[in-house]
Specification:
Strand order of the largest sheet of chain B: 1-5-4-3-2
Radius of gyration of chain B: 22 Å
Strand order of the largest sheet of chain A: 1-2
Strand content of chain B: 5-15%
Largest sheet of chain A: 2 strands, parallel
Distance between the termini of chain A: 61 Å
Oligomer: heterodimer
Largest sheet of chain B: 5 strands, antiparallel
Order of helices and strands of chain B: EHEEEEHHHHHHHHHHHHHHH
Number of strands of chain A: 2
Structural class of chain B: mainly alpha
Order of helices and strands of chain A: HHHHEEHHHHHHHHHHHHHHHHHH
Distance between the termini of chain B: 32 Å
Structural class of chain A: mainly alpha
Helix content of chain A: over 70%
């Protein structure tokens, strides 16, 4: 790939991210990174790199290793793109990396920095041992540099103000505090991550042992820093509220002091992250394109928030729980307004349009019409699937009845229309094209009823409809079965 | 269903015994295989049903009584029965037809239509490359061939004219020669021709298999031992299968090295090519679904866990005993032993989620594998 690499085609490549052989994939990533140096292309290249990221996470192409990259390794699980400018415990905003790194370079022992930088430049990216050694040395150097900064910022108000203005904002200030903590215990955190492995951590004896071991090693360095272990766990666990199960097990194993030290911080982090996710979710309602994706996100966020709220209640944190309750109510209103209300009318209008205007099966439609038809079908499925998925959390929000009512009406409307469409065919003058269109309409209707009311109900329509259509297909009308009998469901 | 219906071996003797993966979207039937019991009856092999480690064999006509199937599957079930489809080619054809009805969602419909179109184009492309190769070798400079030329009636007349002298040398008339080249292209279309810009369906599939094995090995290097063991096993079986398919491709490709001789012996060559292509279809059958499970997981940013690796490894198709050379059998016997040891009973992935969500996930897997 040359520098003139066509980024439009690169975006196409992203859809085949998994089909490219490894060596070609590595080369593609390397070339994209080279292209990324051009500021005009960075945004586009980042889009493609993001699409390739899932595979990159698996096969980790040998990207150019820099001290900045090594610096980020201990806390990379916490990096997020912030949706709102406020600090969230256990998350580090990606845009803060720049100011923090610049500040580090201004304060670090530049001679030692350059020695390590030169060593790294001479090390082949495949020499894992040498890179691990350089990483350890660099983390120590960064920790030594940042520790006094953090300590002074906590006691010296004017230094804190100075630091804040140097870093640009509060977000980066808090990021610096967190990053400094991770540099201090970087080796311990890396050992902990290795023990966790690449899969999602599952609550159980093994995880309890791993966390306890990490706590014990970090306590030797600086006891309050054991919160870094919790932050990593929160970033990796599917159900963060279960962290308290782990903490309880550790307390029972004779380390109640350790648990006491971080229990409050853990609760605040859980509540803070839950609030942040609810806020992000609220923002997503501003521009809804695909309801299915949003509904899935609502379902997973609300289920997580529900579990966190139970934990907060158990820990008697009424204020935090109250905040989450208030935010959940706001989400309820948005779900009602954006997903449920009007879905029935919209779905039936879409269905009507599909069945009346374009029936893109077996009929020689031009490409534009066929693709318009597909878009309408996609929109219709999206409406119905979003309603069905909403049922998983609807009862908690008091919306269950409303959704059932809407789904019932969509089902009824589609079924009646589908049967009428077949009924209205003229048994003596029906053309092949009309039969094909009727069949296509029947299949679309059947699919939608399956999504609305399940496959058993949908199959009754399919069978009755096909029987009727087959009856029309019989050339000699006199041999055809009784039409009225055939459509009876 | 009794225990007599339970076949606990992963390693079949023949392709026919192994059956063909049916892209069902009903969660309980996911990745099951159809095989012909005899000339008139089909049966379905369902892996890991009811939390069991073995494979259940269910008469085809009993399926609708035993399972609550999705609409897509009901239609597919009927069509397979109507066609008595029990080969990879036949199942693919029927499955594409059903997907085109839109019963597995608009994405499957769109992909199915593209796949049908691609099937047709691949036949044309393979013939084009073969005719081009033939013209290059035997009728140098007599005609400049492009796909448009070949696709037009005038162009075909020109080509026939240009190859008529060579046809005579080969002891055939030009029409016969031309139709043999076309037939050759049609037979090998899913495999395609090496070194040409277009990667035909099965050659692309082999590419995917290689990339998948490489990814699994990379991932296993940092995974905890119990997960690594399963991922490495899946990659080992994939690599061994890939070697056998590559050999088979070489056999098919080899025929193009001596076009003249093989066109003369077309009556003998054609069945050999058909057999070779069909063997490749059987060898690769089922792998698209395995790879799709892995890719869908990773692409959605999930961390592959034991449940997902079990789901994937459980449905890996082993190369049947009869298709292996003596020297390969011990390796595959060891792979089967490792599978028996590593695959656990139960399939948690089928429980805990509402049916609609699982069905939509299977539809997505199906779209990835069409």
């Amino acid at each position: 790939m040359s520098d003139d690499f066509d980024l439009v085609s690169a975006q196409g490549i992203s859809s085949y991210a998994f089909d490219i052989p490894e060596d070609e994939f590595f080369k593609l990533v390397a070339d994209l990174e080279k292209n990324r140096r051009n500021p005009e292309r960075r945004e586009q290249v980042d889009k493609v790199l993001n699409a390739l990221r899932p595979r990159m996470a698996i096969i980790q192409p040998t990207r150019k290793i820099t001290l900045q990259r090594l610096f980020c390794i201990p806390f990379e699980d916490l990096l997020r793109k912030p949706s709102r400018p406020k600090p969230v415990p256990g998350l580090i905003p990606r845009p803060s990396l720049g100011p923090v790194w610049t500040y580090l370079l201004e304060t670090i022992d530049i001679h030692q920095f350059q020695v390590l930088e030169t060593q790294l430049a001479k090390t082949p990216p495949t020499d894992r041992q040498a890179i691990a050694r350089i990483s350890r040395e660099f983390w120590k150097l960064a920790a030594v540099t940042l520790k006094p900064v953090v300590a002074r910022a906590q006691t010296d108000r004017s230094f804190r103000t100075q630091l804040l203005s140097k870093l640009g904002d509060e977000l980066s200030f808090f990021a610096l505090m967190d990053i400094a903590a991770f540099q201090q215990v970087a080796e311990e955190i890396e050992r902990f991550k290795t023990s966790l492995g690449p899969s999602e951590p599952q609550v159980g004896t093994r995880l309890n042992r791993t966390v306890l071991k990490a706590f014990q090693s970090i306590v030797e360095v600086d006891p309050p820093l054991i919160i870094t272990v919790i932050y990593i766990l929160m970033a990796r666990m599917g159900e963060r509220a279960l962290i308290f199960d782990v903490l309880r097990a550790i307390a029972e194993q004779g380390e109640p002091e350790m648990v006491k030290e971080i229990a409050r911080q853990t609760t605040s982090a859980l509540a803070g992250q839950a609030e942040n996710e609810l806020e992000e979710l609220e923002d997503e309602f501003d521009n809804v394109e695909i309801k299915e994706g949003l509904t899935r996100k609502v379902a997973s966020t609300l289920s997580e928030v529900k579990a966190i709220r139970q934990t907060l209640t158990a820990n008697q944190e009424q204020r935090m729980d109250g905040n989450l309750a208030k935010m959940t109510r706001r989400i309820t209103e948005k779900v009602d307004r954006e997903i449920i209300s009007g879905a029935e009318e919209k779905a039936l209008a879409l269905y009507d349009k599909i069945s009346r205007e374009v029936v893109g099966f077996g009929v020689a439609l031009d490409e534009d019409m066929a693709s318009e038809n597909e878009e309408l079908v996609e929109q219709l499925e999206d409406e119905i699937i979003a309603l069905r998925l909403s049922m998983t959390f609807a009862d908690d929000l008091g919306l269950g009845g409303k959704i059932e009512f809407a789904l019932g009406n969509i089902h009824k409307g589609i079924e009646e229309n589908a049967l009428a469409a077949i009924e209205n065919l003229d048994p003596f003058g029906v053309s092949d094209t009309e039969l094909k269109m009727a069949k296509a309409n029947l299949y679309t209707s059947t699919r939608m009823i399956e999504l609305t009311a399940g496959s058993e109900v949908a199959d009754r329509l399919r069978r009755a409809g096909l029987e009727k259509i087959r009856a029309y297909e019989v050339t000699d009308v006199a041999d055809a079965p009784d039409m009225d009998e055939a459509v009876e469901l | 269903m009794t225990d007599d219906n339970l076949n606990t071996t992963f390693w079949p003797r023949t392709f026919q015994e192994r059956g063909v993966t049916v892209p069902f979207t009903t969660p309980a039937l996911a990745y099951s295989r159809v095989r012909a019991e005899d000339e008139e009856y089909l049966e379905l092999l369902v892996p890991g049903m009811a939390g069991n480690n073995g494979v259940y064999v269910i008469p085809w006509e009993a399926l609708e009584e035993v399972f609550r199937m999705s609409i897509h599957d009901r239609e597919l079930h009927e069509e397979i029965e109507k066609e008595l489809a029990a080969t990879p080619e036949a199942i693919r054809k029927v499955s594409l037809g059903v997907s085109e009805l839109g019963l597995a969602g608009p994405e499957n419909k769109r992909i199915a239509r593209q796949a049908i179109e691609q099937n047709e184009n691949e036949g044309l492309l393979a013939s084009y490359f073969l005719i081009n190769k033939f013209v290059d070798e035997f009728a140098q400079g007599r005609i400049s061939l492009s796909l448009d030329v070949l696709n037009s009636a005038d162009g075909q007349v020109q080509v026939r004219g240009a190859i008529s002298d060579v046809a005579e040398e080969l002891g055939m008339d030009s029409d016969e020669l031309y139709s043999r080249l076309e037939a050759w292209g049609a037979v090998i279309s899913p495999v395609g021709i090496p070194g040409t810009p277009h990667k035909a369906r099965m050659r692309a599939m082999l590419h995917r298999l290689r990339a998948y094995c490489g990814d699994l090995e990379e991932w296993a290097a940092d995974a905890p031992p119990e997960l690594a063991e399963l991922a490495e096993l899946a990659a080992r079986i994939g690599n061994r299968t890939e070697m056998i398919v590559s050999d088979q491709f070489s056999v098919i490709d080899q025929f193009t090295q001596d076009l003249g001789k093989n066109l003369r012996n077309w009556r003998k060559v054609k069945p050999e090519l058909q057999k070779g292509v069909s063997k490749c279809e059987w060898l690769l059958n089922g792998w698209d679904h395995v790879i799709s499970i892995w890719q869908t997981t990773v692409a959605e940013g999930e961390r592959p866990d034991m449940g997902r690796l079990q789901e994937m490894t459980r449905v890996i198709p082993l190369v049947p005993k009869q298709e292996l050379e003596e020297s390969q059998k011990q390796t595959w016997a060891d792979l089967e032993k490792d599978m028996q040891r590593n695959i656990r009973s139960g399939h948690d992935w089928i429980t805990g989620k509402m049916d609609l969500e699982l069905m939509l996930r299977l539809e997505k897997n199906k779209a990835n594998s069409l």
